[in-house]
Amino acid sequence: MQSAKRFKFGQPPRLDQLQDHDAIPLPAISPGENYKNIGVYMWDRNPAGAMGFEKWVGLPVNIAEDFQPFYGGWELMISDARAPYWTEWVKAVETRRVAFAFPVFPAFRDTWEPGAGDYDGARGQTTRALEYFQAAANGEFNHYYRQFGQMLINNGLKNSIIRFGHEFDGNWYAWSISVGPGGGTEKARLYAAAFRQLVTTLRSLSGQNFTFSWNPNAAYTTDPNLLRSAWPGKEYVDYISFDQYDQFYGGEHYNEAYHAGTPQFRREKQEAVWNHIYNHPTGLKWFGAFSREMDVPLTIGEWGLWYPEPGHEHRGGGDNAYFIRRMYNYINENNVAWHVYFNFGDVSHSIYNTHQHPMASREFLRLWHPNGAPEHYPYSFHQGLPWQEAPRHMPPAISPDDIEVPQGATRYVLPAYEGELIGRAKPQPDPWSLCGTLAELWREPEPDGTAIILKSPVNANGFALVFQAWVQSVDHFPGGNDRFVNVYVNDRCIATNHRLPAVGRGWIDSYGSTVFENVEIKEGDEISFHIPAGVHNPNLWSGVMFDYVMLLLRA
């Protein structure tokens, strides 16, 4: 086994260490029922993820979000690359719908390299965007729009919500109205005309029951007249939507001082950012008023936390329960017809399975779940309890009793996240984990390596490993998503390139187990897991997560 520098990754804070934040009162809860109209984004093509979120939040999730591909040309953009994955999910419950983000036109590039084709990768802009906007406004793309709509109908998704050219006022998508030649009023008017072309085309299809969402960003452009210029007319719009995250462009509030500050200091900055988001010229207050003016229902296409990214520490408020409470109140006070929480990535926006956002996650569950949050939630942050006694919000995906072991063997559980997490290994809470928190293992990029090491407190004759390996690339299912690990007891390698099969796409259905029998383990021995650089693993950007090791003791 390769030698590696050892250290303990910072353990998640204890629940009692979060109490000083709770001591600062949150705003009063606004009464209302609109918060229940919840949807979720759980990565593309992931109905299992939507159903897992539904179980976690304790409310029906009737809207799932997905994105039509917009790189590579029209063929991919109008294809059924994603729709068939939602057919059975929608069919199972009459009220379910998928909200598809559908571009005005694709970026027309065949490679991920910046600058390829007519795509400027540095800004996310198609260099011929004005030309394409004009073509869309004149109806020259209607045959593509028609094929897209027919594809949805053919896949049983006739009631889908279409978010046409979402976030069109930003500067990061090819269909931006704000930048490039014609940026401003000219592109805004062309976008409105293209919207009318799309709606007219899709409404002409037999059997359709589509609805259409006009979906810019909130609190981005300072010119509300730009958004008004992009308005297609209420007869073409079923929903006025906006996307909003807990972020602030500028170093005034969400900066290093904020992230290192006291709870009171952080709250003051959170309030300042919320006031900015709400009172901005195109902020949340403006959208509420515009919805009432146009007499069109208000919805939220995307919303969520924003954890500070490397190099962008000023942008996100991180673990912000105040933002969660404010959004809850806004949804109720403004009769929001539906809203989609963008549950994407632990270090980004995740509220459902998160190491970075324990306070916000608890506040979300306290507000949205009919029974509120359990007293010790997330329970893995309340350390010191054995797994058998820990208060649970959900049953584990795989319990020790679910694993078939040799006759007469006694089970002894070692939580993986309590081991030594070396290199890029880190804890990753998950509501379906037996131990509340997983240990995430990544492929080794450097000589020092990445590993998870557990020390055995007893003598054993083998062990079982419970892991989570979700299917990240459905295009290569199943083999291309499997993980491979090397397993050691001390310096003795007991398994090389051991396959951990990827078995599902949602969190709850992606757990598996494997048993290593007849392996002598003595008290004090170290069991370690590695994904070395040389191990065959096509899913190089992904890791595998371990829930627990279960030692097998024989009399």
Our count of helices gives 14
Question: What percent of the residues sit in helical stretches (DSSP H or I)?
Answer: 10-25%
Q: Which range does the strand content fall in?
A: 15-25%
CATH-defined superfamily of the largest domain: Glycosidases
Kindly give the count of domains.
2
Compute the gyration radius: what is it?
A: 25 Å
Question: In the CATH hierarchy, what is the class of the largest domain?
Answer: Alpha Beta
Ranges where pLDDT stays below 50 over 5 or more residues in a row are: 1-13, 109-124
- Describe the global form: globular
Give the strand order of the largest sheet, numbering strands 1, 2, ... along the chain: 1-2-3-6-7-8-9-10
The total strand number stands at: 21
The residue-averaged pLDDT reads 85
